[in-house]
Design brief:
It is a single chain. By secondary structure, the protein is an all-alpha fold. It has 14 helices and no strands.
Length: 340
């Protein structure tokens, strides 16, 4: 799902601010978001299944070995359901996936859902941690840069944002490992500790992957918020608030920030697929047993059901995140921006 980033919304007039809001615009936005999300999900899963079907993998021949007869291969292909028409297999696969059944691995016969259930919390932890870091530092940097427009803090934040946006996640990950795991041994080099075993160890092992993955998104959020907030702070209603004696903190956080946050949330929507996909790459660098490791092993073995299951879950997460952002943007900014 993609997000279109637009300019900051126009500040509301007094009559607009006092007029009662009707639920219909929000309801229309929710319905449109759901329709778009369903369409994207169907098209993406169809393409995913089609690529798996076109891969030319012959799991029966691989599993049975060279001594297997053609009759044995045909019998195992029938067991896997590979002798049925493509559309029939897709409908059965997507129907089973909606019900929680992603099939079994061709080589280990372990249910794909079980394998994903073990790996998914790792990737979700990294993606959620990176999103949290990007939001915190992006909004903090954007607000500081906007309220100190033209000053030294503004220039420093702009410079750091520009540099951070140009550093790939895997380069940042290697640099952070060298700095904070070897030169200054504060965080572990690799590995993953489940939260049920130790919350402190779980948070510690997520710090470096989350920071490495969040740089690009945090920098973009800071730039978008800074630009939007500077424009909003120059609106007439902000000038009127200053004249009436409202404090700077109340003006920024209660009146200006809710209006100016739309472009920053749109930027987060743009980076949502990168955060989810980047978690797969980052966990490989940090040796974490997430969806990336699972998909990598399955791809090397030609285990198509596992690869398709991982892609399906990834697509579902991206679609859900985009739909949520769409609703949030429609509520906070009141514009036609789309995260779907």
């Amino acid at each position: 799902m993609t997000t279109t980033t637009a300019e900051a919304p126009r500040a509301p007039d007094i009559d607009e601010a006092t007029a009662p809001r009707t639920p219909w615009p929000v309801l229309r936005s929710v319905v449109a978001t759901l329709l778009t999300a369903v369409t994207v999900f169907v098209l993406a899963t169809f393409a995913t299944f089609a690529l798996g079907a076109a891969s030319g993998s012959d799991p029966a021949a691989v599993a049975l070995g060279e001594v297997a007869t053609q009759a044995d291969v045909d019998r195992l292909n029938h067991q896997f359901g590979l002798d049925r028409p493509f559309l029939v297999r897709y409908v059965d696969w997507i129907g089973g996936a909606i019900g929680g059944d992603l099939g079994n691995s061709w080589f280990t016969t372990i249910p794909v859902g079980d394998s994903i259930a073990q790996a998914f919390p790792v990737s979700l932890s990294i993606a959620a941690g990176a999103t949290l870091v990007a939001l915190v530092f992006g909004f903090l940097g954007g607000v500081l840069a906007a309220v100190t427009r033209g000053g030294a803090i503004d220039r420093v934040i702009t410079l750091l944002s520009t540099v951070a946006a140009t550093v790939p996640a895997f380069v940042a990950a290697i640099g952070l490992i060298l700095l904070f795991s070897y030169a200054i041994p504060v965080f572990p080099v690799a590995g993953y500790t489940p939260p049920e075993r130790s919350i402190a160890a779980w948070l510690t092992c997520l710090v470096l992957p989350s920071v490495a993955l969040s740089l690009d998104a945090g920098a973009d959020i800071a730039r978008q918020l800074r630009t939007s907030l500077v424009g909003t702070l120059g609106e007439n209603f902000i000038v009127g608030a200053r004249v009436h004696g409202l404090g700077p903190g109340r003006i920024v956080f209660r009146h200006a920030l809710p209006i100016a946050s739309g472009p920053a949330l749109s930027a987060l929507g743009v980076h949502a697929p990168r955060l989810v996909g980047g978690a797969v790459i980052t966990e490989v660098i940090f040796g974490m047993p997430g969806l990336g490791q699972l998909a990598n092993r399955a791809a090397l073995q030609g285990d198509v059901p596992v690869v398709q299951g991982v892609l399906l879950v990834t697509i579902a997460v991206i679609v859900v995140v985009g739909a949520i952002l769409n609703v949030v943007i429609s509520r906070t900014a009141g514009t036609e921006r789309s995260a779907a």
